[in-house]
């Protein structure tokens, strides 16, 4: 049974009703029928929301999933980061896990600082102010790398996203087994 991980864009597709939503719903139906294992990533709760704000609580994220009718789909956990993660919905990483996250970041965002402190210094952002409008770029990159880190850490099979930036990793050194597919491509994998 394939294990699918949905990127935040899949939640947005469900919310807005874009064409890929039908394929995300097909994978969710396969999960409910025991033909697949699908999961969201808890880090999606830390993403900037439509209207340019961040969710105040994880409960708000769960309510959003409920409003989309997908509250029964499990969420896998990313890493705990001060000011970014919901602490009861994140893992405390080992040095090896952090190194893997660095590898992911290097491939996805080679010109962006890995550490927020470095990014803040070079962009005149107050130390620790991850909510600053200037921090959006870094925070978005952090969410993306955490999405893929969680998928990798939990040894899942198919990362489902419309974000083509993730394709940089697929098949590259250290990521030979990574399978990244759009919802339309991923749903085809359900067929015998």
Written overview of the protein:
This protein is α/β, with parallel strands linked by helices. The chain has a single domain, classed as 3-Layer(aba) Sandwich (Rossmann fold), CATH 3.40.50.1010. Helix content is 40%, strand content 11%. It contains seven helices and seven strands. The strands form two sheets. The chain has a five-stranded parallel β-sheet, with helices on both faces. Helix 1 packs across helix 2. The N and C termini lie close together (11 Å). The mean pLDDT is 92.
Describe the secondary structure blueprint for this structure.
Elements: E1 3-6, H1 8-16, H2 21-32, E2 37-41, H3 58-67, E3 75-76, E4 78-79, E5 90-91, H4 95-108, H5 116-122, H6 136-153, E6 158-160, E7 179-181, H7 183-188
Parallel strand pairs: 1-2, 1-6, 2-3, 4-5, 6-7
Helix pairs in contact: 1-2, 4-6
